[in-house]
Design brief:
Layout (H helix, E strand, L loop, with lengths): L5 H12 L5 H8 L3 H13 L19 E9 L4 H8 L5 E6 L6 E7 L2 H12 L4 E8 L10 H11 L1
Antiparallel strand pairs: 1-3, 1-4, 2-3
Helix pairs in contact: 1-6, 2-3
Length: 158
């Protein structure tokens, strides 16, 4: 990761407000040159500051209205192998290595309860997975967001 300055934070905040902004629109809004915007955007993109576009696609819109979180207990020595196999399951939209009781927490999307049962069985069938515990998400109360952090960064940058 790179170190960002207040101009980078202002740029990211403007993109958060309007992700489809052109370089020219961003330059006008921020009072910078188009070349400055383009250079900063390139630097931020190359440093993996931006997440992938598919993070903005609502799975419900493509037929997956239910979200569940699955805690996975596995054989630690086989973590890389297990994660590689789990990555082949399309309904797994996110997975995190965890401290605490579970080894992984996986976010899955599914069409219905039967589909969730199938997905859980697919995860359990991966060699090295010992057990799972599944919780159905009832609603998303605070969606993924970074804007409050950008606002804080702007406030602290002065």
């Amino acid at each position: 990761m790179i170190t960002v300055d207040s101009t980078d934070i202002r740029l990211m905040r403007a993109l958060s407000d309007d992700p489809r902004s052109t370089f020219v629109a961003l330059a006008n809004r921020l009072g910078l040159s188009r070349n400055t915007i383009q250079a900063r955007m390139s630097r931020l993109a190359e440093s993996n500051t931006f997440l992938s576009f598919d993070r903005r696609v609502n799975p419900a819109a493509i037929g997956y209205p239910l979200t569940a979180f699955i805690d996975v207990h596995l054989q630690q020595k086989r973590l890389a192998e297990i994660v590689a196999k789990l990555a082949l399951i399309p309904e797994i939209v996110e997975a995190h290595g965890m401290s605490g009781d579970a080894d992984l927490q996986i976010r899955v999307v599914c069409t219905d309860a039967d589909d969730l049962f199938r997905i859980d069985g697919t995860i359990l069938a991966v060699d090295g997975v010992e057990r799972t515990a599944t919780s159905l998400a009832m609603s998303e109360l605070i969606p993924y967001r970074v804007q409050p952090l950008l606002d804080r960064g702007l406030d602290s940058a002065g």
